[in-house]
Design a protein that fits this description.
alpha/beta; 3 domains; 7 strands; globular
């Protein structure tokens, strides 16, 4: 693998005091094409963040030397562009609200469904990339506007250059709109029924989970029957492997 390809890999730091959790998450992230690093506590994690660029941090809420919320505050103070996801085995409404207010992308309870966690990681990194694009293009647009503010006499001698600049501006605006369109994500706390698993929308109505997620993201659902349900509800069709 070339050095350029390595630089393009997105770096994810795992801060967790459980070695098994660090190993499992690290192995899965490598398979998914990310560059994972691990830290056993908050001190080690923050020291790693000071050394270089990290795209996203998975933070265990209960660490031996400091709370995950302290780490979250430090990250958002010193590296606000770094995305974070809180993982905890002792979820509470208070800690979820505090983590959300401090700017975490997601708050997930352990043990996590790996597919769900990978989806949250993907969405967080998409948000980060889109915001970086907006910042880059904002700087570029400022430079273009500065060029366009020259005196009429100067612009008369630079008609050809101005035409090229306008074309660049239009291209940047199109890319900016595409970047903004990608920031359609689901985050924060979702009120969900503990029995039927329906989600209450912003109008106070209860919707099926599939409909709620489909209308607010780019996800599409397919349906099938898992082996456990096949064995339970259709025993005649169940054939053990």
């Amino acid at each position: 693998m070339t050095g350029h390809a390595m630089m393009e890999k997105q770096t994810i730091l795992i801060i967790d005091d459980d070695p098994n959790t660090r190993k499992i998450l690290s192995d899965i992230l490598k398979i998914k094409g990310y560059e994972p690093f691990t830290a056993k506590d908050g001190t080690e994690g923050l020291a790693f963040l000071e050394k270089g660029t990290t795209n996203l941090v998975l933070i265990d809420l209960g660490l031996p030397d400091m709370s995950g919320l302290e780490i979250l505050s430090s990250i958002k103070t010193h590296s606000p562009s770094v995305e974070t996801i809180i993982l905890t085995g002792n979820a509470s409404l208070d800690s979820a609200i505090e983590a959300t207010n401090k700017g975490t992308f997601s708050y997930l309870q352990k043990p996590c469904d790996m597919d769900q966690l990978m989806l949250h990681i993907k969405r967080a990194l998409e948000k980060q990339a889109a915001q970086a694009t907006i910042i880059r293009h904002g700087i570029a647009l400022e430079k273009i506007n500065a060029e366009l503010s020259r005196t009429n006499a100067e612009l008369t001698n630079e008609i050809a250059e101005r035409k090229r600049t306008e074309e660049e501006k239009e291209g940047l605006i199109l890319e900016l709109r595409e970047a903004l369109s990608k920031i359609k994500i689901l985050s924060g706390l979702l009120p969900i029924c503990a029995h039927c698993k329906r989600i209450r929308n912003d109008k106070g109505q209860w919707e099926q989970m599939e409909i709620y997620i489909r209308d607010r993201s780019e996800a599409e659902f397919t349906h099938g029957i898992c082996l456990d349900c096949l064995k339970k509800f259709y025993p005649d069709l169940y054939k053990p492997r």
